[in-house]
């Protein structure tokens, strides 16, 4: 049978109010201690009571250790997710700039194409520095109009008349 004084001292040192100040190594040491004691208890009522106290404290120590591990993992996850959110923000920003740049380049291409088409379809207009060259043409004799022909009117020719008997 284990020493009940030593077990009571360990129970006192691992009081639930003191667990939050213990280092992970100390928690692990006491966890191993209580796990080892569980195998050596006898059948007396006092031994059974100490065994149940050791079992309860062992479960409490394991719960505290697991709580700390989960808390630590949660903090790491939050720190990493903060970085991920930051990177996602940058990615969204770059994507928006890319879309805007693509739209801008498309508008410039359309405008440039419209300017080229309008230049080829319009005759160049003289500018104030450039005066149009006057076109001098020699007078050519105008063709004489053809003589008008009189209108022909139908002529009526009388039929010969024969005497009637």
Question: How would you portray this structure in words?
Answer:
The chain is mainly alpha-helical. The chain has a domain at 4-87. Helix content is 61%, strand content 0%. The chain contains three helices and no strands. It has helices at residues 4-13, 24-37, 45-121. Helix 1 packs parallel to helix 3 and helix 2 (24-37) crosses helix 3 (45-121). It is rod-shaped, with a radius of gyration of 57 Å. The protein starts with a helix and ends in a 44-residue tail after the last helix. The model has no long low-confidence stretch (mean pLDDT 78).
The residue-averaged pLDDT reads: 78
Shape: rod-shaped
Largest sheet: none
Q: What proportion strand? A: under 5%
Relevant terms:
165 residues; mainly alpha
In short:
With 165 residues, this protein is mainly alpha-helical.
Set down the secondary structure blueprint.
Blueprint: H1 4-13, H2 24-37, H3 45-121
Helix pairs in contact: 1-3, 2-3
């Amino acid at each position: 049978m284990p020493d009940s004084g030593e077990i009571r001292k360990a129970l006192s040192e691992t009081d639930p109010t003191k667990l939050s100040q213990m280092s992970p190594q100390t928690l692990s040491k006491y966890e191993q201690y209580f796990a080892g004691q569980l195998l050596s208890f006898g059948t007396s009522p006092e031994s059974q009571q100490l065994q149940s106290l050791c079992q309860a404290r062992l479960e409490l120590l394991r719960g505290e250790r697991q709580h700390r591990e989960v808390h630590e993992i949660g903090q790491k996850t939050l720190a990493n997710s903060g970085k991920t959110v930051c990177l996602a923000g940058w990615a969204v920003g770059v994507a928006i700039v890319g879309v805007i740049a693509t739209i801008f380049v498309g508008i410039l291409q359309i405008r440039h194409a419209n300017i080229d088409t309008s230049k080829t379809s319009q005759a160049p207009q003289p500018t104030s520095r450039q005066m149009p060259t006057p076109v001098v043409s020699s007078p050519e004799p105008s063709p004489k109009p053809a003589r008008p022909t009189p209108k022909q009117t139908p002529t009526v020719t009388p039929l010969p008349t024969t005497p009637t008997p």
